[in-house]
Design goal:
With 111 residues, the protein is an alpha+beta fold. The chain is built from five helices and seven strands, in the order E-E-E-E-E-E-H-H-H-H-H-E. The chain has a three-stranded antiparallel β-sheet, with no helix packed on it.
Length: 111
């Protein structure tokens, strides 16, 4: 146990990985305590905010990413779809953020 973080009204432990990043633990007492689920709507809002913070239009971002159209980015921003892993990696490079800072998680209860 390296430290604790308060998230979704619970305290979770985290460890530091090889690159020095904080990683939350979803396992407690050899059971899944918290199942991470990506919140598509909030992730989309986050992508839009990160894009705007970089001063990029949707068209410019699609050009940088060499996408065929802007529609994919709009679908991400509206929470209709998520970027592929490859596109998440590109977004993390463009926004200078880790993928975990782009994706927004919500809690799914384990019953």
């Amino acid at each position: 146990k390296i430290g604790e973080v308060f998230c979704f009204n619970k305290t979770y432990t985290y460890h530091i990985n090889k690159t020095g990043d904080k990683c939350m633990s979803f396992i407690k007492d050899n059971k899944i305590d918290y199942f991470p689920v990506i919140d598509m709507i909030e992730t989309g809002k986050n992508i839009q905010q990160l894009r705007e913070n970089k001063g990029l239009s949707v068209k410019k971002l699609s050009e940088i990413m060499q996408l065929e159209s802007v529609q994919g980015i709009y679908r991400w921003q509206y929470g209709k779809t998520l970027p592929t892993l490859e596109n998440l990696y590109l977004l993390s490079e463009i926004f200078e953020k880790q993928i975990t800072e782009i994706l927004v998680l919500k809690e799914k209860n384990i019953s």
